[in-house]
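To: structure subgroup
Subject: Chain for Friday's discussion

All,

I'm putting the inputs and outputs inline so they're searchable in the archive.
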Amino acid sequence: MTRPREIVVVVDDDASVRRGLERLLRSMGYAVETFASARAFVDRGDYDRAACLVLAVRRPGLSGLDLQQALVDSGDDVPIVVITGHSDVPMAVQAMRAGAVDFIAKPFEDDVLLAAIRAATARPRRGRRGYADGG
């Protein structure tokens, strides 16, 4: 029996970042789904499929940290790797306290992100309930 490929979900408002990460991750054997916003990810609703969420922090509307907290509050412990081009220490602390596997500043080396994703996908998940109220 073959094991299904792990799905890495990328949420970033920058189309070029989404395309680049999708190419990189597919080349490493991951299935990839991309979303331009946290809202689009929430509207999709199928959280159980994600082995890892690569989440950009600052975006219009629902922020990456807001989405992370909503997932935590709903009981979904999908492993999250936070990426950001505008980081500060309080933001990193907030993400890590909420359970992020890693907090990576852009620009980053591919190997750094891939190592974080490998660590995230290796984490066992307790609950897979999803973000129920959408917002």
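Points worth raising on Friday:
The first helix runs from residue 15 to 27.
The chain has one domain: 7-122.

D.
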